[in-house]
Predict the structure.
Amino acid sequence: KPGVQLRASCYLATGKYPFVRLEQEIQLLPNGEVKVIKNTEMVGDQIIVKLPQGSPATDIQTLAAKIGGQAAAKPFTTDTWLISLPQKLEAVPEALAASMNSGIPIDYAEPNHLVRPLRTPNDPNFTNNTQWSLYNNTQLNIDIHAPQVWDRRFNGFYTTNGATNTVVVAVIDTGVRYTHEDLAANMWKNPGETGTDSLGRNKETNGVDDDGNNYIDDVHGIDTYDNDSDPMPGAAHGTHCAGLIAAVGNNGKGITGVAWSGVQIMALKMFGPNGESPTAISDITACVNYAANKGAKVINASYGSTSANNTEAGSIYQAGQAGVIMVAAAGNGGSDFIGDNNDSTPFYPACYTSYNSPKPVQITNIVAVGSTDRNDNRSTFSNYGATSVDLFAPGENMYSTESASDSNYNSGSGTSFAAPLVTGAVALLASEFPGDSVGQRMARITGTNAVDVVPGLNGYCKTGGRLNLAKLLPAADPSTLPLAVAWHRPDYTEPLLGSAMRTPTNAAI
């Protein structure tokens, strides 16, 4: 292929097939980076050979001897044999070429490819396709391709200087029900307000500002609306966003988030009990500052208005200087505000580009997200902007955690619920590339490599596409994945062409 090179390597693995050959199609980019286009794994010391029907069994022994291998004692399916080879880098391609030129009639010779199961959680509303945005099994390719990425990365753990860290995600909203069955294990705890104080009291409930940040017992975050340290919600909106980002995965309950382990949700409440009353910029700014000061890597901002405010812009700019990305909903102009084109009628914070301090400085740490429906169309309520919206993500009928009880779930629609999918993606990026600067992380999430380009989104956002996690994050590293399952080509008879053996249900396509 023009511009594409083939790179091959072999490695030792545990399990049934300890010698594995990895072939990669790669492109050398102008900046010197290597982009992996495709990974193909195979047993590194075997090939499969199919003999014509009725061939004598001695043919396979003769062929194996000619190519320096050893045939299995019997075929694993009709007229189809495994031939073992010496362990060396080019064993498979050399044996394939030699088989075709051996003078012994064969139907085909091919590698014994390896297939890995996609890592999928057992949460009931993921497996029953209620969470269509993560994996849509009724409309092909109209989702964010989460299971492919979960093979590589489903958590926010990362290591620096030998220490294991977690990615902290701040949800600035109506609060988060931090006791919810699908959120509790992934809730952030303020390290300055945990453990015991000098008097032996539990810091979480001792009524003392142990970390000196002017908030008493701010264990899971703060509430700037009520001016206290309990972000327990009065309205469901924030809890719904939190579940989409990081509901606990594989716990057999409810749903799974985009980043379902090793991510900590910091709950920052700034709206009143019913979630309908507006809040003040001072309340928002306090939340943004808190998130930056307490080590959040990404802020989910599923709120906004058409009014720009330099104080709010300044807090976002300062957060960017501290390494924080804000993922902001583009707005629901079709239902909430006058005008839905953010290029002509900006919606904030999604549309902030500068902060006057006193001279203008650029704000470059905001990702603006619009909403798509189940058909990859722009949601009728979603704001858009060819220059002001970065990308789209699913935002309709989004099933997630609710705040009415510790086991409550419900569906909702809006750009508010598209943004959390991108927030979860940024959290995975932060753990996959912990050394990235804000600029590098922004380039990854706002580039065309982060999306499926969708014709219907052309002109509606910068990338012209909907989030695709499988493009955003690198292909799975073979040496870190679970033991592979081998798949062999069956006979070419009509009943088998559509069988589970022909197309495994767990195939990593």
Observations:
- The chain has a mean pLDDT of 85.
- The two ends are 21 Å apart (CA to CA).
- The CA atoms of residues 68 and 387 lie 61 Å apart.
